[in-house]
């Protein structure tokens, strides 16, 4: 069988389940109807991962066929100094403690230029909540990057960073977003959402903005024309209801704004965090989380299985369980590697394409806004 036709073979395989809770959900999925809170709970609680995967894959193929997206990006973490001290995090450091760093602007520009020789189409910029860096540093960082790399999309600053910068600069969230946009920010990454439940946030990140503020900041970003992503950190002290609640809140906001592009479930990495006594997520949970996300977030165009977080192997398999995106070359990853991730720091374009093809899918290089990118030896073109 030709690999590129294997999705057809997969989908013609009949739906089967011994779990009667899944039968009405299957009917809804086939009819394109929205799943409710109890449906989502049943998906988390069933052991029939193949039936859940079958449904998620059918939705994924309805939306994207075999297309599977990746990008050529570079992560830049300008500082790991952070006032928040979240229990979930191994990346943040208090100022002046061993391992704390803050890049001078020139250093950040040099970092942006280093790495693979291939032209990146995106800088993914996130960092700690630094108590002293002025707002101007972040504006200068963005305008300086835009000046030096005008063709590169700046996906910069989580809702948590935006809210913190607004407090430091004594500006409203809206004004902060407007100034960042004017300085060159093109969209926002999905981090910092964690889990919206107050009970869980109190345990894993009690100094961060709450879930309502995260959603409100995303709403304002969308209102001024900035697309964003959304994440959910799972596999720590949350329960199934907390996960479903998180997905439902994202879905409701997406109904209002349409501003989210991609949902990225993030598996908790406990090493070197105050929660390191917790076990790591299992392959079953990682795959199921991708599938449930695809089924519940019916208004999100994309579900990303971030290979750095999931491992390349699980990310590849998840392309048959609802995911249509693997993220990118990354080049240098700090947040999960500080928390014990054993994945490589980056991955070449060709390797991403190989993994996608080996899953029987069609690799599509995209830019941050999901426009196809075409490369020749001398040029990079984005289809607009
Ligand atoms: O906000 C922090 C999470 C996020 C840990 O938008 C941890 O395209 C697991 O949001 N174990 C940052 N997770 C990364 C992020 C992201 C990554 C890739 C793509 C995109 C995108 C966004 O990482 C944080 C937090 O939720 N995180 N510590 C940890 N120990």
Overall pLDDT, averaged?
A: 93
Radius of gyration: 20 Å
- CATH architecture heading: Alpha-Beta Barrel
Largest sheet: 4 strands, parallel
CATH fold description: TIM Barrel
Q: How much of the sequence is in beta strands?
A: 5-15%
**Helical region count?**
15
CATH C-level label? Alpha Beta
Number of strands: 12
Major β-sheet strand ordering: 5-6-7-8
Order of helices and strands: HHHHEEHEHEHHEHHEHEHEHHEHEEE
Give the % helix.
Answer: 40-55%
User: Tell me, what's the shape?
Assistant: globular
Number of domains: 1
Characterise the protein shown here.
The protein is of the alpha/beta class. The chain has one domain (64-382): Alpha-Beta Barrel (TIM Barrel). The chain has helices spanning 6-12, 22-31, 37-45, 49-64, 105-113, 135-148, 159-169, 173-183, 198-204, 211-223, 240-257, 283-296, 307-310, 312-318, 349-358, and strands spanning 67-71, 73-76, 122-125, 153-156, 187-188, 227-234, 260-267, 302-303, 325-328, 362-365, 373-375, 380-382. The protein has a four-stranded parallel β-sheet. Helix 3 (37-45) crosses helix 11 and helix 7 packs across helix 8. The model is unreliable at 1-10 (pLDDT under 50). Residues 88-90, 126, 158, 189-192, 194, 229, 231, 233, 264, 266, 268-269, 273, 306, 327, 335-336, 339 line the site of ligand V47.
